[in-house]
Amino acid sequence: ETGVTQTPRHLVMGMTNKKSLKCEQHLGHNAMYWYKQSAKKPLELMFVYNFKEQTENNSVPSRFSPECPNSSHLFLHLHTLQPEDSALYLCASSQPAGINYGYTFGSGTRLTVV
Amino acid sequence: AQTVTQSQPEMSVQEAETVTLSCTYDTSENNYYLFWYKQPPSRQMILVIRQEAYKQQNATENRFSVNFQKAAKSFSLKISDSQLGDTAMYFCAFMTLNSGNTPLVFGKGTRLSVIA
Lengths: 114, 116
Fold this sequence. Notes:
The complex is a heterodimer of chains A (114) and B (116).
Chain A: E1 4-7, E2 10-13, E3 18-25, E4 31-37, E5 44-50, E6 53-57, E7 64-70, E8 73-79, E9 87-94, E10 103-105, E11 109-113
Parallel strand pairs in A: 2-11
Antiparallel strand pairs in A: 1-3, 3-8, 4-5, 4-9, 5-6, 7-8, 9-10, 9-11
Chain B: E1 3-5, E2 10-14, E3 19-21, E4 24-26, E5 32-39, E6 46-52, E7 60-61, E8 64-69, E9 74-79, E10 88-96, E11 105-106, E12 110-115
Parallel strand pairs in B: 2-12
Antiparallel strand pairs in B: 1-4, 3-9, 5-6, 5-10, 7-8, 8-9, 10-11, 10-12
């Protein structure tokens, strides 16, 4: 357990479903990130939140909708997904660089779209 | 934009032997950090070692050490006395140094298998 908890661990959903991924950290970090990990591709940054404000959206399709109600919680709302969205979704948190520049990752949610 | 390249998709090493994983990167920045992360089958991304670009001395963490060549933009990871528990995906990553939070940029990874 690293201090970043992701639920659920596995998720299978149909293309017409709506589901949400949850990420929680109690490390006192003020930045949170969503990454997508697909086979044989680099980890792709999706969203960045600093102090609850979204500071980066890496051209992610609107069928992915992030939410950061406070600096400890991050959600990724999913709707009308496509089979190519099947991947491992990783959440991470960090402090600003120069203070403690390590990232702490969760164990990810393995998403399968059918 | 920064890019990270890992040219070895898969590698294997005998237990107790030494293995080196390659990483090159491209950036116009002068101040940055470099990292190696390990992802075992449990999927947990674990920080192995990090290097500040302004430091000339190569970072070491127990059996793990790096060969950082700033001019060549190369950052290889050496694992000594390989253990079965070292079997995992290894990702090289880059982050610019500034006053705020900057995202990590990852390579595609190298799958390392340690053979008994």
